[in-house]
Amino acid sequence: MTPRKNESESKKCRSAEGKNALTIRKRESEQKKNGLYQDENEVVHKGVKALYRALGPVETRRFLEIAHPKREDSVSAHRKWQKTLNKDDFFKEIFGEKTTGPLSSR
C-alpha cells in the first residue's frame, strides 16, 4: 500500500469512504423497508459456501473455529479505568488544585 501524497488527497479519500458508507446504509434501509433482506440462514449458508470455495474445507473449518475474543462491556471497562485513578491527581487535573472533600474551601 502506498502512502497518501497530501492532506487534500486524504480528505478526498475519507469523503469518498463516507459517501460509500452512506450509500450502503441507504441501500440497506431501502432493502429492509421492501423486505428484500435475505433470511439469516441463507446468508450464513452462502457465507460458508464462499469460504469453502475460497479456502477449501480444512481452512474453512479452521476459520470458523477461531476463538473470537469477547468484547468487554462498557461498565466493566469503566470500572477498571476508575481503579487506576488516583483521586487527588484526578481532581488536581480537573479542578487545578488538591481537594480533601466535597465541601473543601477553594
Poorly predicted tracts of residues: none
Q: Overall pLDDT, averaged? A: 78
Q: Approximately what portion of the residues adopt beta-strand conformation?
A: under 5%
- Give the tally of β-strands: 0
Q: What would the principal axes of the Cα set say about the shape?
A: elongated
Compressed to H and E, one letter per element, the order equals: HHHH
Query: Whole-Å distance between the termini?
Result: 56 Å
User: What is the CA-based Rg, rounded?
Assistant: 25 Å
Derived structural class: mainly alpha
The helix fraction, in percent, is 55-70%
Largest sheet: none
Helix tally? 4
Structure description:
- By secondary structure, the chain is mostly helical.
- The chain has a domain at 9-38.
- The chain has 4 helices and no strands.
- The chain has helices at residues 7-33, 40-64, 74-83, 87-95.
What would you say about this model in short?
The chain has 106 residues and is mainly alpha-helical. The protein has helices spanning 7-33, 40-64, 74-83, 87-95.
SSE blueprint and pairings:
Blueprint: H1 7-33, H2 40-64, H3 74-83, H4 87-95
Key traits:
106 residues, mainly alpha, elongated, 4 helices
